[in-house]
Amino acid sequence: MRNVLLVRAVATAGLVALFLAGCSPSKDEERTPGEPPANSSSDPALDPVGLSPPSATPDPLAPPAMDMPEPPSDPGAAAEGTSPGMRPNPLRRDEGSGASGNPMRGVGPTAPDTALPPPTTLPPTMPPAGDPFRGGPAPAGAPGQEPSLPAPPVIAPPAEPTPPTVAPPSDRPGQETVVPSDAAVAGSKGEVFDPIKENGPIFVDWPKPILAIVATGREDGYMEPCGCAGLDRMKGGHQRRHAMIEWLRQMGWPTVCVDVGGLSKGYGRQTEIKFYFTVEAMRKIGYDAIGFGKNDLRLPAGELVAAATDPSPFLSANVGLLGFEAQTTARSRIVERNGIKVGVTSVLGKSFHDQINNQEIELADPAAALAEVLPELRRKCNLLILLAYATKEESIALAKQFPDFGLVVTSGGPSEPPSTAQRIEGTQSLLIEVGEKGANAVVLGLYDDPKMPLRYQRVPLDSRFANSPAMKRFMTLYQDQLRAEGLEGLAIKPVSHPQVNPNGGFVGSAKCKDCHEESYAVWKKSGHAKAWETLKKNDPPRDADPECISCHVVGWHPTQYFPYKTGFLSEAQTPHLIDTGCETCHGPGEAHCKAEEGGDLALQEKLQKAMVVTKAESQTNHAKWCQNCHDVDNSPEFNFETYWPKVEHYEEE
Fold first, then answer.
1. Chain segment 424-460, per-residue pLDDT in tens
2. Helices (H), 439-561
3. Which of 274, 278, 187 is nearest to 234 (CA)?
């Protein structure tokens, strides 16, 4: 009953005035000198991002609607297909099972076996920190508790985390079972990895909000972390994102999920397949609104129309698929949760328009488009959100031009979201930066407390979150689709290696053993000699994924995901080229092997020098350096001086 009365009050100007009156010092202003800022921001100086009654409400005191139900488990299951005249999406087939059926439909029932379970009973003994993800007290107002107004939080650094352990299911939100394969594995320095110690606690002392807004974006094709160096040490992925969002819902937090766009990266058939599965995964998660990023709009129009056909989470005020008259995509959307109406729209920044070379997409000026959609949203909604796939500067300029938007979510900004909310100067709007590669989410909690109307949390999607079984199924189906397509179906064709003259083709590591016995022994003991095995043992296996194959075999470009002529094609066709072998670093060895069998000493010396890779080159030569595979995404703990001794080998001249 109390919640209903509070929601009714939101629709009155009196409570809005109380919201806007909060003016006590921010957390950073109050903290003790030298104290690091907390990851969770609950700044009373920030009003509730423009939460206000609709500008035209027949009866502002009328009883509001009761709490809205959460989105269905599969919002996209009701309808699918493409617009007339467009080439069909090859992945959107007719309903049904078997080879001819849509691989995403007919997966099986979504409940109860595919749903994330409700949180289990918390253990009787709790660590001192109030982080619910560490098994601490549940947020006030959680199911089974009487909601109450939150007390102002104590301005203090979070409590020290408890000693790292493999947490039981009750301590890990949304997890069916604990799979402790890497959860407590010693790192490169021998210590046990604790994601909370590494990335900080979250939602410390948060009561239950009247609305929780989850913002993400700039996924850039990263459906999940690489995992080669241990998934538990990496951030991001649909599996953890779904587990986090579903856990909030299970705790009774009314959620609105938005994404600024930028799901794709690159081009080609694999990118198209990945885009489809990403969209279907986000439907399953229950996203309310997704914008278009620049790389998304480089996909074939047929793929975009298939994804954007109703019911679709996509929307844009200034992007018209097949032109604006076709009305293929909604220009805005009103989402209602807990009696609060949230209006959402999105734009593609003008600075990216020249990069879209697709005649079937019509683009409009962002400001002109917003001026058209804003009046209706202003009349009907309590809170307005702008998703701006734009530079940070352009996003700020739009926020100042249209101050009705309480939240402006931008694709601009650094790779890591800020730890605290940022007010846009001269407005009451907040700027939300989502970072990149889906490594983090940002959660905003709105409250009925005039002293603390808003809380902000950067949420690292790390191994404190369990893997979602539903998202794992999507990943399995994605890998199965790649396997079914094969290199030919993915239109991946071998090209000539830049060192084919004078080096010739690839011959495999076994050819090196007789003459380079000591060096071969070093390689055989290294992780490079087990690279292919790691792909096959992944769950699901990645041995059909070009983006993974490229660094785990001989004869592929490590960052462009294509094979060279005479390079690896498949385990059946080219078994001698599995694993990250000698020629992965040294280049093709065919000519060198043949020369050593002959008597031309000058040619032997020439080709021997062509095969040499020095320590300096491994650090500085982009064509040969280790970071081609051991980059920040695939090997976040990589340190050259630590790793080099594991593969170092020299031979007398």
1. 999 999 999 999 999 999 999 999 998 889 999 999 9
2. 469-489, 500-503, 517-525, 531-537, 546-549
3. 187
Residues 6+ away with beta carbon under 8 Å from 650: none
Which residues are 388's β-sheet partners?
Answer: 347, 410
d(CA 373, CA 398): 14
**Given 3-state DSSP classes, what are the helix, strand and coil percentages for the chain, each rounded to the nearest 5?**
30, 10, 55
DSSP 52-114: ---SS-S-TTSPPPPPPPPPPS-GGGS-----TTSPPPTT---SSSSTTS-TTSSS---SSSS
Residue count of the chain, please give it: 653
Owner of token pair 């000698």:
582
Instruction: Assign 343 to helix, strand or coil.
Output: strand
Average pLDDT over the chain reads 75
Residue 641: both structure tokens together: 């001086």
Mean pLDDT confidence for 356-360:
90
Query: Which residue is listed with tokens 């697709």?
Result: 358
Nearest C-alpha neighbor of 260 from the set 225, 215, 296: 215
Task: Report pLDDT for 643.
Answer: 82
For residues 618 and 644, the answer to whether their CB atoms sit within 8 Å is: yes
Task: Dump pLDDT digits (tens) for 88-122.
Answer: 332 233 333 333 333 333 333 333 333 433 332 22
Q: Are 532 and 543 in contact (CB under 8 A)?
A: yes
State the number of CA atoms in the 13 A half-sphere of 73 facing the CB. 12
Sequence-separated (6 or more) residues with CB below 8 Å from residue 102: 80, 91, 92, 93, 94, 95, 96
